[in-house]
Design goal:
There is one protein chain. This protein has 322 residues and is an alpha/beta fold. It has 2 domains: 211 residues, Rossmann fold, CATH 3.40.50; 55 residues, Helix Hairpins (Orthogonal Bundle). A 7-stranded parallel beta sheet has the order 3-2-4-1-5-6-7, with helices on both faces. Helix 2 packs across helix 3, helix 2 runs antiparallel to helix 7 and helix 4 crosses helix 11. The longest helix is centred in the last third of the chain and has 27 residues. The protein is globular. The two termini are 42 Å apart. The relative contact order is 0.11. The protein binds guanosine-5'-diphosphate (GDP) and magnesium ion. Magnesium ion binds next to helix 4.
Length: 322
């Protein structure tokens, strides 16, 4: 499988992703082996997260941007993080999930997130899928996520650059800018800057650009730009491409890419550690009845949660020794 991946074989890549998505324990074992084997071939792509509310045009943008990247000689892989997809999939009018024109290209690969699952489950798989895409020689990876809840943060945690798409006129609620936007975005695009919305888009962009002056960028030393574009009419896409190049150069020059990825890998590692420790504790046969008891005491406010937690952890470490 590693060999076929290294040849850039897209069918092998799809199979490999299916393998890492599998819950079967024997599959998990092979998945771990596969991931270990491909590690030397990972890390060479530029990873971009793309977020925004449903309907803002993320998929349409990815298609336009991805097609542009292909003309520049890139090999483009698209992954999606959408824990809600089984419910909302295709529910939005004109949803462009399938990205047909991009999907037809030889040097493009598109993979929607596995149906169902928790955000944690989906993002874990997406991180691994991203590595597999890199091993299969894709040098630009676009991760689409809905701008709801924690999924934005999770995607920012696995990418090098974070692009936020907004709608023209959305500048009315600039107050939301502190939390959601500036903490994560390296580039903000006001999409649908075409037809009757073009003027509104320019005003929105100017509003955001001036509001951003007073806020701290996520990447030290980088000025977050606000630009307009039209994914449908292919306006401003080449400009976005050159901004992405500039950002990539900036990150490389300052060793920031290396550092960011190192920190991301460590965070991922500790997430995995806490997850498997917790799973082990919850499934511990000797603790099952004690857990029910303690939980009940916490529920009834008879024991402070902090004390109960400490008791349980002590029980766990003692039981595990014996
Ligand atoms: N006018 C206009 N419509 C767009 C643009 N980009 C996307 N759309 C439309 O907006 C709708 C939602 O697009 P989609 O890419 O599925 O949005 P997503 O939910 O953010 O992925 C579709 O009907 C698109 O055709 C654009 O630049 N201009
Ligand atoms: Mg979409």
């Amino acid at each position: 499988m590693v060999e076929s991946l290294r040849r850039g074989d897209r069918r092998a890549l799809a199979q490999a992703i299916t393998l890492i998505e599998s819950q079967r324990s024997d599959h998990r074992e092979s998945a771990s082996q596969l991931l270990k084997a491909i590690m030397p071939f990972t890390g060479c792509a530029f990873r971009i997260g793309i977020s925004g509310v449903p309907g803002v045009g993320k998929s349409t943008f990815i298609e336009a941007f991805g097609n542009h990247a292909l003309t520049q000689g890139s090999r483009v892989a698209v992954l999606t993080v959408d824990p809600s997809s089984p419910l909302s999939g295709g529910a939005i009018l004109g949803d462009k999930t399938r990205m047909e024109s991009l999907a037809r290209q030889n040097n493009a690969f598109i993979r929607p997130s596995a149906a169902g699952g928790t955000l944690g489950g989906v993002t874990k798989r997406t991180r691994e899928a991203l590595l597999l895409c890199e091993a299969a020689d894709f040098d630009l990876i676009l991760v689409e996520t809905v701008g709801i809840g924690q999924s934005e943060t999770a995607v920012a945690q696995m990418t090098d650059m974070f692009i936020l798409l907004l709608l023209p006129g959305s500048g009315d609620d600039l107050q939301g800018i502190k939390r959601g936007v500036t903490e994560l975005a390296d580039l903000i695009l006001i999409n649908k800057a075409d037809g009757s919305l073009a003027d509104a888009a320019r005003i929105t962009a100017a509003d955001y650009q001036s509001a951003l002056q007073f806020l701290h960028p996520r990447t030290e030393g980088w000025t977050v730009l606000v630009k307009t574009c039209s994914a449908v009419e292919d306006i401003g896409i080449a400009d976005v491409w050159s901004t992405v190049q500039d950002y990539q150069t900036f990150l490389n020059k300052n060793d920031q890419l290396e550092k960011r990825r190192g920190i991301q890998a460590k965070t991922w590692f500790w997430e995995e550690v806490s997850e498997s420790l917790l799973a082990k504790l919850r499934r511990h046969p000797k603790l099952a009845s004690r857990i029910v008891e303690i939980e009940h005491q916490v529920y009834a406010h008879r024991v402070p949660p902090t004390v109960a937690a400490q008791d349980l952890v002590n029980l766990f470490t003692d039981t595990d020794k014996s």
